[in-house]
């Protein structure tokens, strides 16, 4: 699976109708949809589709036809995201009506093309990366153990955040790829007998 590191934009036109497409990280989906509506007040449809992994490791998918005929826009866009094996992303397609009806088949082709176009742009710009599940753990560590902990975390490509300084310990949060977090947890358990949250 692949995911997106920053927003990409695409464009498709057919029979006078213009389709502006935006591929965004899922975390920015709601904000980008609201922004699209305010930036394009004369657009007639704001079609969207999304795929993300929730905290239970389930893929959650959604789509919205935004008053286009049922099955003509949101689902075809979602199918492109599925076909490209994209995760934790959303696509928003802003349609300006060109005065000529496209029919359901024409809409399916147009929304599919608009979604493919923005994904192709993301590929060209190097914005798609292999997806790896991230995880976070919390622990409390004596002050004299922190530098060893940070050294080990850095070796594994993990980020260390000092959330709270207490009397005898520091409350740390370690974030990074799930496999690296598992290795880190095992090392800490062996070294200090720590219980990880």
Plain-language structure description:
- With 197 residues, this protein is of the alpha+beta class.
- The chain folds into two domains: 2-130, 2-Layer Sandwich (Ribosomal Protein S5, domain 2); 134-192, 2-Layer Sandwich (Ribosomal Protein S8, Chain: A, domain 1).
- Helices cover 35% and strands 36% of the residues.
- It is built from five helices and ten strands.
- Strands 2-3-6-4-5 form a five-stranded antiparallel sheet, with helices on both faces. A three-stranded antiparallel sheet has the order 8-10-9.
- Helix 2 (74-83) packs parallel to helix 3.
Q: In which order are the strands of the major sheet placed?
A: 2-3-6-4-5
CATH C-level label of the largest domain? Alpha Beta
Number of domains: 2
State the shape: elongated
Number of helices: 5
Strand residues, percent: 35-45%
Estimate the mean pLDDT confidence: 91
Largest sheet, in brief, is: 5 strands, antiparallel
- The CATH homologous superfamily name of the largest domain equals Impact, N-terminal domain
